[in-house]
Amino acid sequence: MMLIKSLTVASLLVGVNSVALAEDDLMSILEGKTSTAQAQFVESEEVAKLKKAVNPSSAEQNIFFQFLVEKNYEKALFQWSQAFNQSAFQMTETGKALEAFLNYKNGLKLTGVENLLAISNPEKIDATVISLWKENLNDKDPVWGMAQVTWNPYWTQVFGQAAEMAVVLQKAMSLKTSPL
């Protein structure tokens, strides 16, 4: 009987300890802290720079950045509106480019590229977001031939002349085939 009682107490203590650790992990995420011993993912240099530039001020923003660190772009996109809806950051060129990137990474490639290219002052986009785009979108991607936008010369230095030519040719073809 004493053995059963000891085992019951031991299992209760393990359960309480597990709950306490889970609460600590949740609070760390909400506060934007990551423990190096417990972190499953290492924060990339780009995400760390972007996080520093944005300076997250809410639990929702910290959760968003945790999803970026994990490269869980689907959850990051779902978290986007909670973290940045109607915020000053969302209205910046960097915010628009980051949201466009999340669309691109979640299978909305055309929407993402068109929204990126529609940014009126792309030179104001933080270099870390430009790096994310450059790592994920090359000048051979077929999306360039579908994008219906006006090409800004800034993008040539980012994505190359092949991307520019595909966009310009697509626009010329759509003008040629559209009825007057």
Structure explained in plain terms:
The chain is mostly helical. It contains ten helices and no strands. It starts with a helix and ends with a helix.
List keywords for this structure.
single chain; 180 residues; mainly alpha; 10 helices; 68% helix; elongated
Task: Please outline the helices and strands.
Blueprint: H1 2-31, H2 45-54, H3 59-69, H4 73-84, H5 88-91, H6 93-105, H7 109-117, H8 127-136, H9 154-159, H10 161-177
Helix pairs in contact: 2-8, 3-4, 4-6, 6-7, 6-8
Number of helices: 10
How widely separated are the two ends? 92 Å
* Strand proportion: under 5%
Largest sheet: number of strands, sense, barrel closure: none
Indicate the radius of gyration in whole angstroms: 23 Å
String of helices and strands: HHHHHHHHHH
The coarse overall form would be: elongated
Q: Outline the low-pLDDT stretches.
A: 34-42
Describe what is shown at a glance.
This protein has helices at 2-31, 45-54, 59-69, 73-84, 88-91, 93-105, 109-117, 127-136, 154-159, 161-177. It has 180 residues and is mainly alpha-helical.
